[in-house]
Queue: 2 jobs
Job 1
Amino acid sequence: VRPLPETEDIAEAEWSRDRTHVGIDRWTGGASDGRLFTVAEPQGVTWEDLDIELDLSRVGHDQRRAAVLICGVAIGQLVDGTIGFGRGTTRGLGEVEVKRLKVSVPGDLPAYSPDQTWWSWLREVAGEGDLPSVLGLARESA
């Protein structure tokens, strides 16, 4: 267990959420009979802003759009709440709530407006093709 970050907001964290987990048998990998354990987990913790910077000078000019899209899909997953950070994300730990986005893009890409959804902006960045095909994720029909 890692300690929480040392910020003033930690004092406001509540440790009232107890979660019960099943102990795992190290030999079989299955549930260990009668080995439930309970841990107290923090909630109500506020973290500092997360800054993600994509250095487009490190990719070729013809790959800039793809780099923005790939990073954008990862950010979209954070916005949707489908991925988290750290240990135990499948147990409800590491949950992330995105409250606001501030995006700066080079002039040759469409500007992001907070009035539009993240995915609609990514589709706009993708341009002519749809998002899966631009990212190389489109499957060919058999």
Job 2
Amino acid sequence: MPRFARLFEAAADTLHAYYQAIADSDIDAVMSLWIDEDFASLIDSSGAHWHGIDSIRAGLVQLAGSQTLASAIEPLDVRVYDSLGTVVYAVAEAHRAREPLAAPRMVYATYVLVHERGEWRIAHIHASPMPDETANEFAAKMRQGQGALH
């Protein structure tokens, strides 16, 4: 096995932990995954843009309070670009609403993770809504139970 195989698997563990923390509505767990730097940034699919850990936390708390923070994020299609010290995930996602009957929001998200002090940390997230036509294609595949890669 190549030396770096486990290193990049650990980056995926961080992304999975992010999805789980969102599902648990645990802002502290979400924030524990971020790099501890002021250059961290998050662009939400609504267009909100936050720089720095304190701003990101405040923004996520605001989204959670307004019920617009997803109750679950389902990755539908994942592309991974890695190099030593940095991994970028380009993911098509279904963001499930807290309202059980609401259709999921279909989102493209880019996650930039950096290797810092032996751990993978989130440095940047950029999410944007999918165009309607693409979102409808993904939604149809979800309804048919095929998943995004079939």
